[in-house]
Amino acid sequence: MRASLNRVLKIFNSKIFLLDSRSINAEHYTLLQLTLTMNIAIQGIQGSFHHLVALDFFGNDITLTECMSFSEIPELVITNQVDAAIMAIENSNAGAILSNYALIDNNDLNIKGEFYLPMIHNLMALKGQTIDDIKEVWSHPIAIQHCKQFFKDHPTIKIIEERDTASVAKHIKENKLKGVAAIASKKAAEIFGLTILEEEIQNDRHNMTRFFVLTKKREHQPDDYLNNKASLKFVTHHQLGNLAEILNICVKHNLNLSKIQSIPITEEPWHYAFFIDLCFDNYHKYCQALLEIEPRVDSLKILGEYLESKPKFHKMTA
């Protein structure tokens, strides 16, 4: 990695870069890269929250490869069966999805971008049904957890856990199930022709999930200097003050540590890898920091460099 970073710094110092990343809108930058219809892998089916992120990030001109588990996604990306994938990584209430960090790391996937989506849960059923007709609600366990207050207010409704929110909506439509409701997005109700009985039944109006946009691992590109955020993994020497030393290097180079997550190292009890997100205004300083960090840790890996996305709480349209 050191040779690659030195090459990037050499190019940077040649002053061939004329644009300022802060003047580039993240959405426009993404669209500049898209010339063909892209095939995007998602967990779930059309109408799911992963589908909404794919539409927001890549636009409407996409095709979907639907996966019922996250573990199916890496192989599709690695073997070029899809152009990119969407994967949830953390929720503002439930925290990080550690298994997905492991999938990204173990399969050498590249984090191409990030997206924050409000988790807006809507109760939906067949047309003609009312809330009084509903005896059971089927949905994903996390969606149910996000709507605990609703079920406290409706104690007679039986809760059934399922694997995917949108899949339940589809099942209700195809099997004409009366007395059964789904918790899903407005997009799911639109796609499967269901009536929304009650909107926004989630407990927290600011509940959001962060998603990663994933591609195959790639080498440094000439336009990498446009990026202003990076996700890294490193393993410390397990010595006193080693982690603090790494964090001080980040401060020295004006890198903002927006997230740090420790994950146990398999077959090394009580040893941990650290996954961090860094935000920066100067790509040159970021590269210099990596060159200083690398000899001070057991291992250092760039999981992805991309344009920072900001949570948009006003965009409550899911």
Question: Could you walk me through the main structural features you see in this protein, from its secondary elements to its overall organization?
Answer:
The protein is α/β, with parallel strands linked by helices. It has three domains: 122 residues, Alpha-Beta Plaits; 97 residues, Periplasmic binding protein-like II (D-Maltodextrin-Binding Protein, domain 2, 3-Layer(aba) Sandwich), CATH 3.40.190; 77 residues, Periplasmic binding protein-like II (D-Maltodextrin-Binding Protein, domain 2), CATH 3.40.190. Helix content is 30%, strand content 30%. The protein is built from eleven helices and 15 strands. The strands form three sheets. Strands 1, 2, 3, 4, 5 and 11 form a six-stranded mixed β-sheet that branches. The protein has a five-stranded mixed β-sheet with strand order 8-7-9-6-10. Strand 1, helix 3 and strand 2 form a beta-alpha-beta unit. It is elongated, with a radius of gyration of 22 Å. The protein starts with a helix and ends in a 12-residue tail after the last strand.
